[in-house]
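Entry type: protein chain
Record version: 2
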Amino acid sequence: MACRVCKAIGRLCGTRRQCLTVSDAAIPLPALLPPTFDAWKPDDPDRAVAVLMSGGVDSSVTALLLKRDGWDVCGVTMRLPIAEQCKHPRPCCGWEAATVCRDLRIPHYFMDTASAFQRHVIDPFCAAYAQARTPSPCVDCNTALKFGVVWDALEQCLGVRHIATGHYARREDHLAGPRLRTAVAGERDARYFLYGITSERLARVL
């Protein structure tokens, strides 16, 4: 079932649950690039977690805290076209994440997400804007990219069962499934950006 964005861009956008259909199966997953340092070889998949890292404070502290709690941590950074063009002396997306992982002594990988970012974030954003609607690219990026095809690729390449990010939110587990709750630091609550994550995957987000 296609949404209005699908109709505008002439294909399934993948940003909404009803658009994530088997027809997307033919689209290649983002490519995991060779390890930046040493390859990740977790001993226990149930205690292994991939942290999606930009190089910023929040995701870096997430990796540190999980390592302190005994998790086998690996950092993963998405390579985006906008990051490649960044001229800032301290870019938020790229090598600073690798530097943090080196200092924490955890493995690190880059993932080529340029095509997936265009498909799942940029194209739907442009289509919505052209229709005089207000797009939410951060929601689409989390729903379809980070917790969608990026996680699919990490499962396929590394057997990842758990993912963590630097978002501020809490998860409560119930018999009916996990629920997102307000972050302890309520002023930094980020539930809005995570609401599209499926229940099955939300249960495995740390």
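Comment: The CA atoms of residues 151 and 160 lie 8 Å apart.
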